[in-house]
From TrEMBL:
Keyword rRNA-binding appears in the UniProt entry: no
Organism of provenance: Popillia japonica (Japanese beetle)
Keyword DNA-binding tagged: yes
GO cellular component terms listed in the entry, alphabetical order: nucleus
Entries under InterPro entries matching the protein: Homeodomain-like_sf, HTH_Psq
Superkingdom per UniProt: Eukaryota
Molecular function GO labels: DNA binding
Gene3D superfamilies hit by this protein: Homeodomain-like
Keywords: DNA-binding
Main location: nucleus
Localisation per UniProt entry: Nucleus
All copies of domain HTH psq-type, residue ranges: 29-65
Protein's name in the database: CENP-B N-terminal DNA-binding domain
Length: 234
């Protein structure tokens, strides 16, 4: 009996050596994608797929979890390096552009909500033609991307905005009105549109006032986060 148990332990040890010898980058990406496909199509469990295709069970589980959270259903959107570790969607330079844009909008009293930010990230990924794991049906990045982005940019936070009328925000004076038209002229010159493409949405039934309970992305340290609310007298 002891000999029988010893043989079983030997076989079991060899089995685990065979499996663990294929993890930590020693498996190929094609096998991982095949394993992901089987799991996502519910044709195999994570454990069965990892054994059949000789890939890391933990890495396979992590990738499937990310795909499920992001809403993706096809493994072709799974971005990784040769070691099986997920890469950032954007390079440091690309993410810096996104980060500066978020801050610029906040400074103009037009901060983004989380949903608006995730849609912006999705559109930027499409514009730059980068590999992403974003939700193609909702056309927006996933919550994992949001939390990772906020963790890398700790000066940003999600805060409840207080509506502020445009008149109160900028001050109704000749200097401010002149500045407005200076900015308008620059935009018209930059984007080459003529006066017929400038529209006034006031009193048209199109609401320009945001939800009072809406949370927006803002730079930390401000006394109160505000969002512009239009006034019928401005």
């Amino acid at each position: 009996m002891g000999q029988h148990v010893g043989q079983n332990l030997s076989k079991l040890s060899g089995f685990f050596q065979e499996i663990t010898g294929k993890i930590r980058g020693k498996w190929d990406e094609a096998s991982m994608k095949s394993a992901i496909e089987k799991v996502m199509l519910k044709q195999m469990t994570i454990r069965t797929a990892s054994i059949k295709f000789g890939v890391s069970r933990s890495t396979l589980g992590d990738r499937v979890k990310i795909l499920l959270k992001g809403g993706e259903t096809t493994p072709k959107f799974c971005c990784s390096n040769n070691k099986g570790v997920f890469q950032k969607t954007f390079t440091d330079e690309q993410e810096e552009i996104l980060y500066e844009h978020v801050k610029a909008l906040d400074g103009q009293l037009m901060p983004l909500s989380r949903t608006e930010f995730l849609k912006l990230a999705y559109n930027l990924a499409k514009r730059l033609n980068v590999c992403d794991r974003f939700n193609k049906e909702k056309r927006m990045a996933g919550k994992d991307f949001y939390y990772e982005f906020m963790n890398r940019h700790k000066d940003l936070s999600l805060r409840t905005a207080e509506p502020t009328s445009l008149q109160r925000a900028v001050g109704f004076s000749k200097d401010k009105v002149d500045r407005f038209f200076d900015q308008l002229t620059k935009l018209m010159d930059k984007h080459k549109f003529n006066p017929t493409r400038v529209f006034n949405a006031d009193e048209t039934g199109v609401s320009c006032v945001h939800n009072n309970n809406l949370k927006v992305m803002s730079v930390k340290g401000k006394k109160q986060e505000r969002g512009v609310e239009t006034s019928p007298y401005f």
